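hey m, so remember when u said the C-alpha cells were messed up on ur end? i reran from scratch. heres the input so u can diff it against urs
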Amino acid sequence: MLKEPSLQELQQQMTQLNSLLIACLTAFLLLSIVLTAFLSVQDYFLRRDLTGARKLVQEYETNRKPMINAFIAKLQAFAQNNPDFQPILQKYGIPLSVPVQTPQPATSTTPVR
C-alpha cells in the first residue's frame, strides 16, 4: 500500500514547485526582453535600409528613367530611318514606335440577369 505523504513533505514539494514556477517565469521574462531588443534593432536597420532604398528609387525616377526613355526614343527614331536596325530592337522587346495610349471605352457595370 501507498503511504500518504506527511504535511512537511507536501509543503516541501509545494515550495519546490513554487521555485520552479518562478524560475520558468523569470526565464520567460528574460527571453521576452532579449527578443524585444533583437526585433527593435532589426526594425531600426530595416527602416534605415528602407530610407536608402526610397532615395535610390527617387533618384532613378527623377534622373535615370528620363535618360533611359530619351535613349529608347532615339533608338526608335534611328530604327525608323534604318530598317536593318529594327530586328535588334525587336530582339530586346523595344517597340518600333511609342504606342499611343487611347482611353478604353466605358463598360456598363449593371448586372446581367
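this time it looks ok to me. The mean pLDDT is 87. if urs says something different then somethings off w ur setup not the seq
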